[in-house]
């Protein structure tokens, strides 16, 4: 996507600041992208801003509004991690605003894949005589808005699977007991992850076993939408997940979508949706598509047992896995973090690339991207 031209260490320095600002919108701007913008004159920051909430002004608008001396703008460079928009959305196009303010140069992290933008913002700026540099910290810029980019590329949500497991890959002992596998620091990080994902998805089995609420309690931040997969409508109405603290969507089979229990759930404020199933599983691809298209949920964090993890991986629906690994052993009779993948040959194994690792208290937190051939 684009090429880096005239990129310098200074450009990267200010683009880092854009990314830092953009991240402040995490959890608040979806389904819009996270965007930060910095305005620089002669190596001095004269304005900055970010997209603060969905429907609010874009980063460039906020950055331009923060400049106290508008006479500086014609000699300024505007940095922004995503291509300025060229279409009328909830706000007028930022590229028009930049042109009207006579900004000399614009530095962009990555292009906006949104079909109404996709290079048109850059084109408009260049046609108006603005010098444009694209692709500064492109990889980082694309990574920040990976869910937004996936959504506008293939209309599916970005799926992050989380496991809390022992070093031998177990999430529970044979009895099913699974509380406190990992420590307090890991738990806080899981809550932080919830606060920045659009939704957290789990299964009836996990709700029945753990009675978890899936809300954000161990850190600051807003609750994600909760999604429960319950093909057989087994989840008790008294489950903590139906506490009304956050929007809750339940997917069941087409056969049970209009059942008495489904009606009881709806009466409690739960959004009940029906999806096809194959006799064992709900159609996971259809569920994710529905979450994306009908509920505008672009990033889904999965917190469930090995069965759902295995099924999502088998169906190639996982983008990243975050492994919280405790220095404990549950042995072969414990329950595995990843259920059956139905592999016959080592060559068929999904291949991942580790992207980061760090200690969280006594635990190790490893992130891996999943690549499917
Ligand atoms: Zn804009």
TrEMBL record:
Keywords from the named record: Hydrolase, Metal-binding, Multifunctional enzyme, NADP, Oxidoreductase, Riboflavin biosynthesis, Zinc
Assigned EC number: 3.5.4.26, 1.1.1.193
Molecular function GO labels: 5-amino-6-(5-phosphoribosylamino)uracil reductase activity; diaminohydroxyphosphoribosylaminopyrimidine deaminase activity; NADP binding; zinc ion binding
Protein's GO biological process: riboflavin biosynthetic process
InterPro entries per UniProt: APOBEC/CMP_deaminase_Zn-bd, CMP_dCMP_dom, Cytidine_deaminase-like, DHFR-like_dom_sf, Eubact_RibD, RibD_C, RibDG_C, Riboflavin_Biosynth_HTPR
Residues annotated to bind Zn(2+): 58, 85, 94
Cofactor annotation: Zn(2+)
Catalytic residue list: 60
Note describing how the cofactor binds: Binds 1 zinc ion.
Record's catalysed reaction(s): 5-amino-6-(5-phospho-D-ribitylamino)uracil + NADP(+) = 5-amino-6-(5-phospho-D-ribosylamino)uracil + NADPH + H(+); 2,5-diamino-6-hydroxy-4-(5-phosphoribosylamino)-pyrimidine + H2O + H(+) = 5-amino-6-(5-phospho-D-ribosylamino)uracil + NH4(+)
Residue span, CMP/dCMP-type deaminase domain: 9-133
Binding site for NADP(+): 164, 180, 210, 305-311
Highest taxon listed in the record's lineage: Bacteria
Pathway(s) per entry: Cofactor biosynthesis; riboflavin biosynthesis; 5-amino-6-(D-ribitylamino)uracil from GTP: step 2/4; Cofactor biosynthesis; riboflavin biosynthesis; 5-amino-6-(D-ribitylamino)uracil from GTP: step 3/4
Binding locations of substrate: 178, 194, 206, 214, 217, 303
Annotated function: Converts 2,5-diamino-6-(ribosylamino)-4(3h)-pyrimidinone 5'-phosphate into 5-amino-6-(ribosylamino)-2,4(1h,3h)-pyrimidinedione 5'-phosphate.
Similarity comment: family membership: In the N-terminal section; belongs to the cytidine and deoxycytidylate deaminase family. In the C-terminal section; belongs to the HTP reductase family.
Entry protein name: Riboflavin biosynthesis protein RibD
Organism: Prosthecochloris aestuarii (strain DSM 271 / SK 413)
Taxonomic placement: Bacteria, Pseudomonadati, Chlorobiota, Chlorobiia, Chlorobiales
């Amino acid at each position: 996507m684009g090429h880096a031209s005239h990129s310098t260490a200074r450009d990267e320095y200010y683009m880092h600041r854009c990314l830092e600002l953009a991240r402040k919108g995490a959890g608040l701007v979806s389904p819009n992208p996270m965007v930060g913008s910095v305005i620089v004159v002669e190596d001095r920051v004269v304005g900055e801003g970010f997209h603060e909430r969905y429907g609010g002004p874009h980063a460039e608008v906020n950055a331009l509004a923060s400049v106290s001396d508008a006479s500086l703008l014609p000699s300024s460079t505007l940095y922004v991690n995503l291509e300025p928009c060229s279409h009328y959305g909830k706000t007028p196009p930022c590229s028009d605003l930049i042109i009207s303010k006579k900004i000399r140069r614009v530095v962009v992290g990555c292009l906006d894949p949104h079909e109404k933008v996709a290079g048109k913002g850059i084109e408009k700026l260049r046609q108006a005589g603005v010098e444009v540099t694209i692709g500064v910290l492109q990889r980082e810029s694309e990574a920040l808005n990976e869910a937004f980019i996936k959504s506008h590329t293939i209309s599916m949500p970005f799926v992050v699977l989380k496991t809390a497991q022992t070093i031998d890959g177990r999430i529970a002992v044979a009895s099913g007991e699974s509380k406190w596998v990992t420590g307090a620091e890991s738990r806080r990080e899981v809550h932080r992850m919830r606060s920045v994902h659009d939704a957290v998805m789990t299964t009836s089995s996990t709700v029945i076993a753990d009675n978890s609420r899936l809300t954000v309690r161990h850190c600051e931040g807003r609750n994600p939408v909760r999604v429960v997969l319950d093909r057989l409508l087994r989840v008790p109405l008294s489950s903590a997940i139906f506490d009304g603290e956050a929007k809750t969507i339940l997917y069941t089979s087409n056969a049970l979508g209009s059942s008495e229990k489904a009606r009881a759930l709806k009466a409690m404020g739960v959004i009940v949706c029906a999806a096809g199933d194959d006799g064992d599983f709900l159609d996971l691809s259809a569920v994710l598509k529905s979450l994306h298209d009908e509920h505008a949920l672009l990033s889904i964090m999965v917190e469930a047992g090995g069965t759902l993890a295995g099924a999502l991986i088998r169906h190639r629906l996982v983008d990243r896995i975050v492994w919280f690994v405790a220095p404990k052993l549950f042995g072969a009779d414990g329950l595995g973090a990843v259920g059956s993948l139905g592999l016959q040959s080592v060559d068929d194994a999904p291949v991942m690339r580790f992207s980061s690792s760090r200690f969280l208290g006594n635990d190790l937190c490893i992130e891996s991207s999943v690549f499917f051939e």
